[in-house]
Amino acid sequence: MQKKEFGLGDIVEMKKPHPCGTNAWKIIRMGADIRMKCTGCEHSVLLPRSRFEKRLKRILVSAAQERAERE
């Protein structure tokens, strides 16, 4: 399986939707743990990196790509 590359500020889709109905999350902190914020209700969740990588489905919007397009 190919390792998914993600970074700070990326908007990602997880395998299971949030109870508010939204399935898009913004990465707001990276380290040994990943903190992400629901784009629907602004709820914040902290997951260990290993659990985050297992539950990550795909990257919807890459923050690095957006920055490159603006410049």
Notable characteristics:
single chain; 71 residues; alpha+beta; 5-stranded antiparallel beta sheet; 5 strands; 38% strand; globular; DUF951 domain-containing protein; DUF951
Q: SSE layout and pairings?
A:
Blueprint: E1 11-14, E2 24-29, E3 33-38, E4 44-48, H1 49-55, E5 56-61, H2 63-70
Tell me what you see in this structure.
- With 71 residues, the protein is of the alpha+beta class.
- It has one domain.
- Helices cover 21% and strands 38% of the residues.
- The chain is built from two helices and five strands, in the order E-E-E-E-H-E-H.
- It has helices spanning 49-55, 63-70; strands at residues 11-14, 24-29, 33-38, 44-48, 56-61.
- It has a five-stranded antiparallel sheet.
- Strand 3 (33-38) and strand 4 form a beta hairpin.
- 13% of the residues are buried.
- The model has no long low-confidence stretch (mean pLDDT 88).
Low-confidence stretches: none
Task: Give a short account of the largest sheet.
Answer: 5 strands, antiparallel
Task: Sketch the topology as an H/E string, one letter per element.
Answer: EEEEHEH
Strand content: 35-45%
- Structural classification: alpha+beta
- How would you state the average pLDDT, rounded? 88
In angstroms, what separates the terminal alpha carbons? 33 Å
Shape: globular
Q: Helical segment tally?
A: 2
The total tally of domains equals 1
Main-sheet strand order equals: 4-3-2-1-5
Q: Any idea what the radius of gyration is? A: 12 Å
The tally of beta strands, per DSSP, is 5
Task: Kindly state the percentage of residues in helix.
Answer: 10-25%
